[in-house]
């Protein structure tokens, strides 16, 4: 079991146990989640639209101001506006999270396809590899990668990607095996289509939506793990406005200026909740469309 | 069968770690002597190579490592020059205490929350789901900081660093337990909803059993089954979380030792912690399997076939 698989099963379950919808109206939670993700997208592409001042403007006289109307999230030790810095850090935090997710997803896809299509021996082999990788729980595999490759934002991204790959692999294998035993794949096989054609024409297109849901769930997890590595000083380093690095820098001032820690962390929590809710909404939509 | 699988996983973890470590660029002998900046003499390097067996062929080194592992010898720390087994042995207890307490607290929180909110009126169910979702999204490093800000700096109820007293354990355990409870409660809710639709629930209701009694007597076992089988995963997840929590609360333990060793690239210590955590994970997998059978008679019958 991996954290990702757990998120996946709970999302499936929550979609399963929902009663029939009364009105064709999206839920309030889904709307909020979409709005939050849209806000993050704007902050990534055009941060200057949503920040209130230059995130690097130093004003020693304004140091350690608590949150107010002028500085929504307060100011840091150099008088920089924390809200603007959080916005400025969105791009790098999301970039790390999305890249790590893509790495994990790509590796998981390769392993999953090999296991579900490479015959019994490969399936057994890949299964054992995944099982062994699960014996490095949580951040442990990522820490091992960092020991080998050295700390830094790029290795942290790769480390998170690698350590989430076994979870993806097992879910993808399960999904592909499920699709493979469906009637339309059986029909295609009876018609004499080659395995490669079946894979390209039937399996991967049908696995696309679940893969997208999976990636949505994975991004939240990847952002948390990457931020944890940054927090431990093994990922992005403090002058950077990356959320984990901001949290690490704020740690020294926790007793006097908790807002330096609270707000960058709230962005991480908000992103994880929003992506989970989006994953649920997508799963639900998939069920109802059928 | 289970034991053979466990031995295989341990062997594979040791092998994978051994060869991964060889990918580190640079001369291991130099690393032992303090890195490229240390200007170690050729004699010193040769001496270290002999001491650590680095002059042997890779295969010999690998077999020697396996032979040492079987006897419980994890090698010698590069940085501290003490046997890794002694170093970690003294810390395993504290970290396990932390992890097991967190697991228990998470169990109690999750069970309470899901028994209270599952299948209730819309508002209670929505509140329950919202709490679970939020709890599962809380990163340890942030939750720890917020708990310290509220209960330590603000209210002054608990110390901000672990002092070795029970009061010092409260915040670290809470930090680890709350997100885990979110995960466990989500899974419990699922099986509880299934259980509440079973015929035996209807018949208990027809006998006049009230809602609370019904939940406590008839559905609690169903609710806990998936969470029992998750406990192996959960303990591994907690040990990984201990890296962050022990660092923040300045507690001695495996997690903090691992982080220091990663920073210093103290390879034997990293390998030792990884192997120890893998061992705990593998043992827990066997234990949860047995526990599931104890809690669910249906599994026992399947096994007897």
TrEMBL record, chain A:
Gene Ontology BP term (one): transmembrane transport
ABC transmembrane type-1 domain residues: 90-279
UniProt keyword Repeat present: no
Compartment(s) of residence: Cell membrane
GO cellular-component term (any): plasma membrane
Region described as Disordered: spans on this chain: 1-21
Chain segments annotated as transmembrane: 31-51, 94-117, 129-148, 154-172, 207-228, 259-282
Chain segments annotated as coiled-coil in the UniProt record: none
Transport keyword on record: yes
Alphabetized UniProt keyword annotations: Cell membrane, Membrane, Transmembrane, Transmembrane helix, Transport
Pfam families: BPD_transp_1 (PF00528)
Membrane topology: Multi-pass membrane protein
UniProt family annotation: Belongs to the binding-protein-dependent transport system permease family.
Protein name: ABC transporter permease
Origin species: Agromyces bauzanensis
Automatic annotation (TrEMBL), chain B:
CDD domains assigned: TM_PBP2 (cd06261)
UniProt keyword Membrane, yes or no: yes
Domain of life: Bacteria
Keywords (A to Z) from UniProt: Cell membrane, Membrane, Transmembrane, Transmembrane helix, Transport
Gene3D superfamilies: MetI-like (1.10.3720.10)
Alphabetized GO MF terms: dipeptide transmembrane transporter activity
UniProt topology in membrane: Multi-pass membrane protein
Domain ABC transmembrane type-1: 92-292
Primary localisation category: membrane
Membrane-crossing segments per the record: 6-24, 92-116, 137-155, 167-188, 225-249, 269-291
Compartment(s) where it occurs, according to its Swiss-Prot or TrEMBL record: Cell membrane
GO CC term (a single one): plasma membrane
Keyword Endoplasmic reticulum (UniProt): no
InterPro entries: BPD_transp_1_N, MetI-like, MetI-like_sf
Protein family: Belongs to the binding-protein-dependent transport system permease family.
Protein name: ABC transporter permease
Organism: Agromyces bauzanensis
């Amino acid at each position: 079991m991996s954290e990702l698989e757990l998120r996946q099963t709970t999302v499936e379950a929550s979609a399963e146990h929902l009663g029939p919808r009364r009105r064709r109206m999206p839920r309030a939670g889904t709307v909020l989640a979409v709005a939050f993700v849209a806000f993050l997208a704007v902050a990534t592409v055009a941060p200057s639209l949503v920040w209130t001042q230059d995130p690097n403007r130093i004003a020693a006289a304004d140091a350690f101001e608590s949150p107010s109307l002028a500085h929504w999230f307060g100011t840091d030790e150099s008088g920089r506006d924390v809200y603007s810095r959080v916005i400025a850090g969105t791009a790098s935090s999301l970039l790390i999270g999305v890249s790590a997710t893509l790495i994990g997803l790509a590796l998981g896809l390769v392993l999953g396809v090999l296991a579900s299509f490479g015959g019994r021996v490969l399936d057994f082999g890949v299964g054992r590899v995944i099982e062994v990788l699960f014996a490095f729980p949580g951040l442990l595999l990522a820490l091992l990668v960092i020991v080998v490759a050295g700390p830094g934002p790029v290795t942290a991204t790769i480390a998170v990607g690698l350590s989430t790959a076994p979870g993806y692999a097992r879910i993808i294998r399960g999904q592909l095996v499920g699709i493979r035993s469906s009637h339309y794949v059986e029909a295609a096989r009876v018609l004499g289509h080659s395995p490669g054609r079946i894979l390209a024409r039937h399996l991967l297109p049908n696995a696309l939506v679940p893969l997208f849901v999976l990636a949505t769930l994975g991004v939240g997890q990847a952002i948390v793990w990457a931020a944890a590595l940054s927090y431990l000083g093994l990922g992005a380093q403090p002058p950077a406005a990356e959320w984990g690095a901001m949290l690490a820098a704020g740690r020294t001032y926790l007793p006097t200026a908790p807002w330096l820690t609270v707000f960058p962390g709230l962005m991480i929590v908000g992103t994880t909740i929003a992506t989970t809710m989006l994953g649920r909404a997508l799963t639900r939509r998939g069920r109802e469309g059928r | 069968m289970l034991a053979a699988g466990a031995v295989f996983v341990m062997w594979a973890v040791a092998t994978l770690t051994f060869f991964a470590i060889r990918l580190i660029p640079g001369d291991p002998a130099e690393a032992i002597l303090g890195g490229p900046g240390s200007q170690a003499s050729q004699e010193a390097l040769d001496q270290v190579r002999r001491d650590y067996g680095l002059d042997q062929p890779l295969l010999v080194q690998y077999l020697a490592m396996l032979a040492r592992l079987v006897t419980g010898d994890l090698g010698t720390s590069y940085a501290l020059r003490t046997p890794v087994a002694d170093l970690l042995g003294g810390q395993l207890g504290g970290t396990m205490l932390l992890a097991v307490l967190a697991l228990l607290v998470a169990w109690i929180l999750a069970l309470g929350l899901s028994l209270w909110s599952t299948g209730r009126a819309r508002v209670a169910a929505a509140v329950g789901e919202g709490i679970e979702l939020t709890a599962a999204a809380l990163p340890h490093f942030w939750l720890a900081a917020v708990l310290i800000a509220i209960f330590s700096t603000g209210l002054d109820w608990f110390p901000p660093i672990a002092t070795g007293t029970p009061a010092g354990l409260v915040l670290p355990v809470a930090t680890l337990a709350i997100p885990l409870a979110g995960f466990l409660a989500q899974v419990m809710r699922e099986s509880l909803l299934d259980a509440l639709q079973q015929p035996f629930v209807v018949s208990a209701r027809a006998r006049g059993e009230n809602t609370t009694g019904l939940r406590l007597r008839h559905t609690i076992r169903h609710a806990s089954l998936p969470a029992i089988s998750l406990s192996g995963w959960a303990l591994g997840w907690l040990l990984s979380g201990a890296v962050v929590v022990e660092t923040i609360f300045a507690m001695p333990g495996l997690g903090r030792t691992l982080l220091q060793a990663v920073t210093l690239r103290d390879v034997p210590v990293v390998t030792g912690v990884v192997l120890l955590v893998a061992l705990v994970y593998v043992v827990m997998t066997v234990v949860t399997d047995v526990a599931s059978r104890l809690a669910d008679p249906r599994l026992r019958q399947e096994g007897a076939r």
